[in-house]
């Protein structure tokens, strides 16, 4: 069984550490705050150590990284060079060249490199993606994802980098390719230079399109993925408290035989999905990849695809915000 060291016991890192502990694989906690690391280790039945000590510990098989995003590349590369398998929270890195270097290093060393795109391990999304791949929707026409809530506001990154990696990962998975074109618009309302709401449009080589809307100043929580295909439509409502109602299938048809397309509506069908926790599934998958030498579902290649789309969206967003500022200056 894999032995895991976890780096970063913050807002999200503590959830990863807890899951690895409950799986019986957590060996060590690393955190910049030694007292926090020691307290967490005592709670979770692990030990606390410095990052350098973890790298040199032959007992450690893999390292889970949930440090601040700007530290992902440095921590992951050090771990790979030390011969450790690596799980790194999204984003894989902040720069495509750095992400490519991580992927190449892992590949050359025969090590696991896995990215924390959590929704890929959500059983409802897994079911939805399988339905798409089985042809139940026909050709995908349009897919969109909304991820909105009130907070958590950040100063170190905008809402695009904080929220959208999950949604980009899902859209790329459904369409089976990276987008051929990406555009973005946003709004800065509270912290100078930090976008609080962003909309990203993507067009894919097969002719399908989609958009993502992310916002942390929304009056209520909404996590909704909508898939529109030639043969059927579906809604994955992750903010729906009733598990059995999270995935609804609509077998609507559009009659195009006349001069004007006419919809033929049907009642939604609830799609049964066995319940399990996405984060637990993700942590189990990382351990299985180490123990059984499996290829991660969200490997370096998948992480690179998401990062390339993110960077294109960030460039488009900057242009949009600069244009907005120019218009304000003129007025």
UniProtKB/TrEMBL annotation:
Annotated Gfo/Idh/MocA-like oxidoreductase N-terminal domain residues? 4-117
The GFO/IDH/MocA-like oxidoreductase domain, residue ranges: 125-234
State any single GO MF term: nucleotide binding
Tell me any Pfam family this protein matches: GFO_IDH_MocA
SUPFAM superfamilies found in the cross-reference section:
Glyceraldehyde-3-phosphate dehydrogenase-like, C-terminal domain, NAD(P)-binding Rossmann-fold domains
The name of this protein is Oxidoreductase
Starting at the broadest rank, the lineage of the source organism is:
Bacteria, Pseudomonadati, Pseudomonadota, Alphaproteobacteria, Hyphomicrobiales
